[in-house]
Amino acid sequence: MDRRAILRLAVGIPFLGVGGLVRPGQAEHLVKPVAAGGAVRPPALRSPRLVMIDPGHGGKDPGAIGAGGTYEKDVTLDLAKELALQLRKTQGLSAGLTREDDHFLELGERVDVAREAKADLFLSLHADSAPNANARGLSAYTLSEKASDAFSQALADKENYADRLGLDLKHTKPVVADILMDLATRHTQAASLAARQGIVRGAGRDLRLLENPMRSANFVVLKAPDIPSVLVETGFLSNRQDEAVLRDPAQRRRIAGILARELATLLASPTFA
């Protein structure tokens, strides 16, 4: 067993193997199973990739409220349910939701749900109020300590009402924690950027995009170090045209179908192999 495997077993978090990120419980797949008599057993079939969908806001936190009275928490929940349905039904993927009804979850709890499920991708759905009322269209965000622009910083400031890092290393020696964080985050950051690019470029063939639609900021909900994470603004309820689209059930189904298509393509790519 190599040094990284020992570290993983010591604290129970993923490490980077030859083919990429290896999660707890998957280390055995790095060694071919051998049956009695020396025969090599065929490897077990891999479970469908799991997308954990996070409907933004909920419960006492309504999120943005459009001029027409549309609540962001309702839009994101309906979109998330439809996206999960289409991922399972038409794309053969597994999908979970951080919340399935109108209740409040702290940001750290949303991250914890995804990590406990060992999700392959975490997708947080939003339809916020933009700093500029003229801003409209889909955009995607990855984690960055320094925001790519003031617009993204303003969105992150609105979202970050709680601040919990998705990885508990408080009982780990500092030097070991540094190594583990580095191993986990290098792959996660690269995969998150690939996911952001794939979603925007693919969805942009069919949906209106925000100007400069690939952005980054310090969103707490994107801080799981071992799960590629992207926050998608499906539009802005502060814009009347976007609100009209997002409050239409048929349009929400359309958006969910487009996102499901792009997520299936993404999870079949070498980045997530």
UniProtKB/TrEMBL annotation:
The keyword S-adenosyl-L-methionine does not apply. One of its GO terms (biological process) is peptidoglycan catabolic process. It comes from Nitrospirillum iridis. The keyword RNA-binding does not apply. Signal peptide: none annotated. Coiled coil: none annotated. It is an enzyme of class 3 (hydrolase). Keywords: Hydrolase. Residues 111-259 form the MurNAc-LAA domain. InterPro entries: MurNAc-LAA_cat, N-acetylmuramoyl_amidase_3. This is N-acetylmuramoyl-L-alanine amidase. It catalyses: Hydrolyzes the link between N-acetylmuramoyl residues and L-amino acid residues in certain cell-wall glycopeptides. SMART domains: Ami_3. It comes from the Bacteria.
